[in-house]
Design brief:
This protein has about 140 residues and is mainly alpha-helical. The protein has a domain of about 55 residues. Helices cover about 50% and strands about 5% of the residues. The protein is built from seven helices and two strands. The chain is globular and about 50 Å long.
């Protein structure tokens, strides 16, 4: 948020939009090598040849990627439409054009997950927040 202070003297208001998981084309366009990881885009396990292939893998963190993909594919299938982010951007622009006396938010969390994580980030220590993310994202 330091940039907001730097730009303020030039009459520029900075607003940070923090979307959570949003249902975009990202998953459709994500390139994941077949049989490299256990999970496919449909959050289904791939063939049993996976264990044999995994042993040949050069990836030292294949298990971490498996867990993340499982979380991410599932989250994307239940995520809100990108229009939610666009609506918040339009509201932020309208808010920033109001008079100086009216408060302009510096940070806007978009989506249920982003709002929850933003709240927890404020309430928890860095260590506890990191542990929470590790447990939730890499189960």
């Amino acid at each position: 948020m330091a940039l907001s202070f730097e730009l303020e003297s030039f009459g520029i208001k900075l607003i940070l939009i923090e979307p959570g998981v949003i249902n975009t084309e990202f998953v459709k366009d994500l390139v994941v090598p077949s049989n490299k990881y256990r999970i496919d885009r449909n959050v289904e396990f791939v063939s049993s040849s996976y264990e044999c292939e995994k042993k040949k893998s050069l990836s030292l963190y294949g298990n971490v990627v498996d867990k993340f993909l499982s979380f991410y594919y599932n989250a994307m299938s239940h995520a809100p439409h990108p229009a939610l982010v666009a609506d918040e951007i339009i509201k932020a622009i309208a808010s920033s054009s109001k008079s100086e006396n009216e408060a302009t938010p510096l940070r806007i969390a978009v989506g249920k997950d982003s709002k929850e994580y933003s709240k927890l980030k404020k309430e928890l220590s860095d260590k506890d927040f990191h542990e929470l993310l590790r447990k939730n994202l890499l189960r």
